[in-house]
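Input (RNA exonuclease 4):
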Amino acid sequence: MSSERKKNPKHFQLNPNWAQLQQKLKSFAKPSRHSKNPQSETPNSILGKRKERPNSEPDDAKPNPLMPTNDDSSVTDVLAMDCEMVGVGQGNKSALGRVTVVNKWRNVIYDEFVRPVEHVVDFRTRISGIRPRDLRKAKDFRVVQKKVAELIKGRILVGHALHNDLKALLLMHPKKDLRDTSEYQPFLKEGRRKALRHLAAEVLGVEIQNGEHCPVSKMLIIYLFSKQLAKHEIITLKLHIKTWLIDLLCSKLVY
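Output:
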């Protein structure tokens, strides 16, 4: 564990959207403190100020749980991955449009738009958040596929419905190294899988994915649900962790 907390970890070039998200998170995390210097207040401001309740607590801003725990962007032993799809062919066929990978410290280590092999006929922007301009300079599918394969090799991979993401990447991963929240027994309803947004609402009381998806926050909420147990065990719920996946922040971003 200590070897992963390196002082000078290898950093990856991230998608601009993630930089925007981090800036938003930092702004939300800043405490709002009002000046309490009596000399700075005018008589009008004093008269117009509401009386504070004697038992009221100071309005200190709480740390934003979406922020990474540190600045370590190294490739850790546990990674979370999420993919967004676009429509090709007649539009009903899915192809990879974006892939994002996050390490165990909640830092994005890989985030790339992908140029599909086939012509895109439906960007599915309402769901994927992908727009035509995002794919103009996107990387070739084979380049992204190779990089993701290198990142996840020999590591625990966390995700929701990972079979769909791996299928889009045309990759395979050992079943013993998969931690899939969609297959976790306590989350199944009469043997059927639930959507991530339903799990978030029912288990955490968090409303997500109202609009365009943010793959980063989706992966963070997956981490909220999951915890690595023994090497060959499936995930279990982290009931003690704070609800630090608020996808509403991502809905405010402009892709």
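The first helix runs from residue 16 to 29.
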